[in-house]
Every structure is written in C-alpha cells, then in structure tokens.
Design a protein that fits this description.
Blueprint: E1 13-16, E2 21-24, H1 31-44, E3 48-52, H2 58-61, H3 64-71, E4 75-77, H4 79-89, H5 98-107, H6 111-117, E5 136-137, E6 143-146, E7 149-156, E8 163-168, E9 173-177, H7 199-211, E10 218-221, H8 230-251, H9 258-265, H10 272-291, E11 295-299, E12 305-309
Parallel strand pairs: 2-3, 3-4, 4-5, 9-10
Antiparallel strand pairs: 1-2, 6-7, 7-8, 8-9, 11-12
Helix pairs in contact: 7-8, 9-10
Length: 312
C-alpha cells in the first residue's frame, strides 16, 4: 500500500480461510488506498471477517475505521494501542497544550518551531479514519485461530505501547509489523504524552525475547522484504542502539541540550516531521542513559534540559 513519505509503501498481509479473510494492518486513509482495497476485495471473492492492527501508527491503523465500518467487521488490537490511537489521533479542540509545548521547550526547540508541532485539532489526524467505538482485545500469550492455524499473540513495547506480533509455529511464520525490521531500526521515541518514559529499555527487552526464536523463522515485516535470521537481526539492532548510546555519552563531556545532541545520531539536515521524530528518538536514548546513571540532567535558566556524562 503506497505511503507519501520516504518508506514509500507498507506491506500488508491477508490471512485466508475457507469462510473468509482477515487483513493485518491497513495503510493510511486516502482515496487511492481505499480504491486499492476495493480492488483487492473484488479479487478475493471472499468476505472480510476482521481487521487486525499490529499497532496504532497511522500507516498501520489509518483505514481500520473505514474497513470495519464499510464491511461491518470487528477490529482486533491490543488495549494500549487502541486507546492510545483514540487519544492521540482523535480531536482535542479544548485540550491544554502546555505540556506539549514544555516538551519541546525542554529539548531546546525555538518558539516558532514549537508552534509548528503543537496546535489544537478539531478532527481526526489526517490519514487516520475514526476508529470503531468497540474492539476485540489481543492479549499477550493468547492465540487466534484463523484458517485452521493457531497464531500466538506476542506483544512488545518500545516502538509503540503494546505492539502485536503474530507467530504461527506450524508454519514457522512471524508477522512482525514494525517491531523488528530487516534493514532499518523502528523509531524508538519519547513523546510529549509520557516525557519521562524509557522505551529503549522496553525495546531491548523485546529484542532479547525475539533473539530466542528459531533462526529459520520467516519474518513478514511491514517495511522492506521478508527475511530469516531473526536472532542475528535482534543482535544487530541492539548493537546499533548501543553504539548510539556510547556516542552520546562521549559527546556529553560538557552540558549539552537535546538539539545539540541530534548530529551525533543523525548526519543529515533535519526539519519538519524528520525533526519531530528525531527529537523523540534522541530523547529515548538520553532518558535511557539518565536512568542508567550514565548521564545527569539539569535545567537551564531558560527551561532547557542539559545532559552531562557522570563518569559511571
């Protein structure tokens, strides 16, 4: 399904049984994406029975509401992903935006740039259809039976609050979503809704679990191509983030703001949505180091956080 940014497209999956199909993730809401789905359903010639969403991000959940409404089928999500999506992407016309603004101020972002990122919203976020007001909860350790196959539900934090992966032992298949990708790392970010979070620690925990899965498991990711070698990929991703952590500690030999730290992690010029996600990911690494007592954090007279290595 096409995407209007660098990743270009998202891989979506269809689980087919004798009585109908389930789709895993949906793509962004757009006329083009809806037309593609309608063409697909015409070829499937089987009814849609349910929509499974791995996590809340718009390229995965954007058309969930439309599919569930148009085809009168249930939505399957983990609880944290469902309620986070309802909260983050829904309207907030009367919301107090003070904490959102403080989040960017503490990172060292200028007031004009803060206004770019923080504004009230009267409708659902662009690219996301309103979600159904009810859902069927996917829980860690439970299973879904589809087409006579048992799919184990695995949930992980880090990239999102309660990301769902589906593992079919009989077929040695893992529908991995964004949790563990073959070519890139998923964004591991700290956002204004929970500025003191430590999602990188959660992500490392998920990599430990995934590294213990069979190496010949075929992973079906949301981006790039299917692959095997899951344990090795988990180690690679851990090493990638550990390298970034070490670079940040070295750089913070004197007090540094988050914005000053960005070139340590990103060698390209950042602006717009790239800057938004870079701030979140850099903060996840700084928070991880702070909780590990490898960085200390103080606040300047202008309300900006300063990070400095502790020598630990």
């Amino acid at each position: 399904m096409p995407l209007p940014f660098e990743l270009d497209h998202i891989n979506l999956y269809v689980l087919e049984g004798d009585d109908g199909i389930y789709v895993v993730d949906t793509g962004l809401s757009s006329r083009k994406s809806k037309a593609i789905w309608e063409a697909c359903f015409a070829q499937f010639n089987k009814p849609l029975l349910g929509v499974i969403v791995t996590h809340m991000h718009p390229d995965h959940s954007g058309l969930a509401g439309w599919l569930c409404r148009e085809y009168d089928v249930p939505l399957y999500m983990s609880a944290l992903e469902y309620f986070a999506a309802r909260s983050i992407f829904g309207p907030n016309p009367m919301a107090d935006l003070t904490t959102d603004k403080r989040y960017f101020t503490q990172a060292g972002v200028s007031q004009p740039d803060i206004e770019q990122y923080v504004r009230p919203r009267d409708t659902y976020t662009e690219g996301v259809e309103p979600l159904p007001l009810a859902f069927r909860r996917l829980r860690q350790g439970e299973t879904l039976e589809i087409a006579g196959k048992q799919w184990q539900i695995m949930t992980f934090a880090g990239h999102s609050p309660e990301h769902v992966c589906l593992y079919c032992k009989a077929e040695n298949l893992l529908i991995g979503g964004d949790q563990i990708l073959p070519k890139i790392s998923p964004n591991i970010g700290v956002y204004s809704q929970e500025p003191e979070a430590n999602p990188l620690a959660d992500y490392f925990a998920s990599l430990t679990t995934l590294s213990n899965m069979p190496s010949d498991t075929l992973v079906l990711p949301s981006h790039n191509v299917p692959y095997t070698g899951l344990p090795d990929r988990a180690v690679e991703l851990r090493e990638h983030h550990e390298t970034q952590l070490e670079s940040l500690v070295t750089f913070c030999d004197s007090p540094r703001t988050l914005l000053e730290c960005l070139p340590v992690m990103y060698k390209r010029t950042l602006s717009g949505r790239h800057m938004f996600f870079a701030i979140a990911e850099c903060l996840s690494h700084l928070n991880y180091l702070m909780y590990a007592s490898r960085l200390s954090r103080t606040m300047s007279d202008t309300g900006v956080y300063l990070y400095k290595q502790t020598g630990v």
